[in-house]
Fold this protein.
Amino acid sequence: MIVILLGPPGSGKGTQAKALVKRFSFPHISTGDIFRANLTLGTPLGLEVKSYLSLGQLVPDELVVRLVLARLTEPDVVEHGALLDGFPRTLVQAQSLSDFLSQQGQKITACLYFDLPDDELIIRLIGRMVCRDCGRNWHEKFNPPPSSLICDSCGGSVIKRGDDAEETAIERLKVYRQQTKPLVDWYEERGLLKRVQSFGNPSEVALAVEKALNS
């Protein structure tokens, strides 16, 4: 099973990714994790990534594709499949993934698109709070942190991230919509896109995910 996750920041995609990995026991693959692993190990591909990041440049499609496809050849993915998060981000990446899977006799099971109106996403984004040390999440409205703003899991400080300010959140969503629309259309044309309306609590959204996969 190869499942792709698409969804704007604040859509609950991360929470559902954890639930899917637990349910299906397949690797959760994100480009960020792959970059960090290769950088830490000092692999040739990692050194290429570093050369772009050190200059503040985006990693080119061709290099991103090589990194992800190399990960997809590893035994755990071959045996169990994968949950792809953050890849593909462009049509070039989507086509490369499709061609690779076809050569391997595999195919994409579904592309889950977590969708919410921008006004709801902004409410979620600007209220988010996180532990500086362990990364645990809260929300000012839906899941308030301890009044002391001290994480009750690790004792770290609970803060608001700078990129969750309202103006920044609006711009992030604008850019995301522009970048993602071609991918949404591409997977929809191929009958692979499954829209998940992310209203409700995580359990309700999980039921929507299950319904989408079963359809």
Remarks:
- The first strand starts at residue 2 and ends at 6.
- The chain has a mean pLDDT of 91.
